[in-house]
Amino acid sequence: MTGQGPRFQPDLLTEMFRNPLDPGYADAAERRASGPPKPAWRLAGARGLRLVVLVAIGLLLAVAYRHVVAGEPESARAHAGLVDEARGAQERTDELQAQADALRQEVAALRAQALGAGSGELRALREQEAATGLAKVVGDGVIVTVSDAPAQVDPTTGKQVTPEGGRVLDVDLQDVANGLWAAGAEAVAVNGQRLTATSTIRTAGGAILVDFRPVTSPYQVTAIGPENMLDSFLKGPSGAQLRGLKAKYGIQFSTSQRDDLTLPAAGTDVPLRYARPDVSPSPTPTGGGR
């Protein structure tokens, strides 16, 4: 049809792109151009004010930088002091543990001398000690190695970080140890720490403790047991759990069968507990009569 206006009127968005500048800005620019020039003192005052503001901001930044730089050596010294203190405590603990092991061996030698080297009582005692973790054992077994997921580069900081969920937890080591026990293990150790009936595997902060001694990745769970122990472990729920952790979080694990493994004795003596019958008198029953 001729003689008619456009069929579609421009919408608000099209009008904004066509005239992006508000007319008020153009009117203000015209007034400034047509008005008298600003006095020199006013221009000088504006420049001076900007200069004062820039100087004040620079001073604030300089003071903040000096405080940060001054505090960094102090925090570094505090961190280094804590590290040295922790290392010293660990060294003292290792020395005490070595003394305890030497005394334990001396007691075992005196006991063997008292009971007789080939006596049946001594053989039975040594078997009980090996079963409870109080004596070292030697035999064929398996090693299950579990380690954190490979570190990745943080795009923000550029540092190597372990991905979320990729760190081995205490419950993972508990599951591995329980799976080996269920597969027929006779003795189990985690990074050289022998497990007993009262052993604990737990987390303290970011570290995993086995009987209150820290262990780090990679974690080696060593077990002595029957020949088919590794197959039973991998086919059981613990093996399936490890495969799931590797597929979902990237946690690495490997298994190997070894001959002539040596598992040390437990680091601490296992407290002996005895069951005793309850000798307290039972309450006299009260019967109601009619």
TrEMBL record:
<keyword id="KW-1133">Transmembrane helix</keyword>
<dbReference type="InterPro" id="IPR010273">
    <property type="entry name" value="DUF881"/>
</dbReference>
<comment type="similarity">
    <text>Belongs to the UPF0749 family.</text>
</comment>
<keyword id="KW-0812">Transmembrane</keyword>
<feature type="coiled-coil region">
    <location>
        <begin position="86"/>
        <end position="113"/>
    </location>
</feature>
<keyword id="KW-0175">Coiled coil</keyword>
<keyword id="KW-0472">Membrane</keyword>
<dbReference type="Pfam" id="PF05949">
    <property type="entry name" value="DUF881"/>
</dbReference>
<protein>
    <submittedName>
        <fullName>DUF881 domain-containing protein</fullName>
    </submittedName>
</protein>
<feature type="region of interest" description="Disordered">
    <location>
        <begin position="260"/>
        <end position="290"/>
    </location>
</feature>
<feature type="transmembrane region" description="Helical">
    <location>
        <begin position="48"/>
        <end position="65"/>
    </location>
</feature>
